[in-house]
Write a structure and sequence with these properties.
single chain; 105 residues; mainly alpha
C-alpha cells in the first residue's frame, strides 16, 4: 500500500536508506524537523530528541524499511477516483457534442 509523502519526506527516507542521517544542506531545519516528525508519526522512523526538542538522531524502523522495499522509488498513490471522474466528464461532454451535432445537421 502506498502512502502520500512530500518531496522532503521522500528525500529523508532515501538518505536514511543510504545511511546518511544528517539534515540535507538545502533544507531548512524547520522543514527537516516537520518531515522527520511526520515520518515518525507514521511509524517509518525512530527519532531521538534532545531535552530542548532538537533532533539528535533518526533511523528507519522495520516498517520504514519494509515500505522502502515494497516501494523503492517512493511513488505516491494514484487517486483513481479523480481520474475516473475526469474521464466520465470528458466522455459526457463528447457525447453531448455528438448528439448536438447530429440534431443540428
Amino acid at each position: 500500500m502506498r502512502i502520500k509523502l512530500t518531496k522532503q519526506e521522500k528525500l529523508i527516507m532515501k538518505r536514511l536508506q543510504q545511511g546518511v542521517t544528517d539534515k540535507p544542506e538545502d533544507m531548512s531545519y524547520a522543514m527537516f524537523s516537520w518531515s522527520v516528525t511526520s515520518l515518525s508519526r507514521r511509524g517509518f522512523l525512530w527519532v531521538a530528541y534532545s531535552s530542548g526538542g532538537v533532533i539528535v538522531s533518526c533511523e528507519l524502523t522495520f516498517k520504514g524499511e519494509a515500505y522502502l522495499e515494497s516501494n523503492p522509488k517512493l511513488y505516491n498513490p494514484i487517486n483513481w477516483d479523480k481520474w475516473f471522474a475526469i474521464s466520465c466528464i470528458i466522455s459526457s461532454a463528447l457525447l453531448a457534442i455528438i448528439i448536438y451535432l447530429r440534431l443540428t445537421l
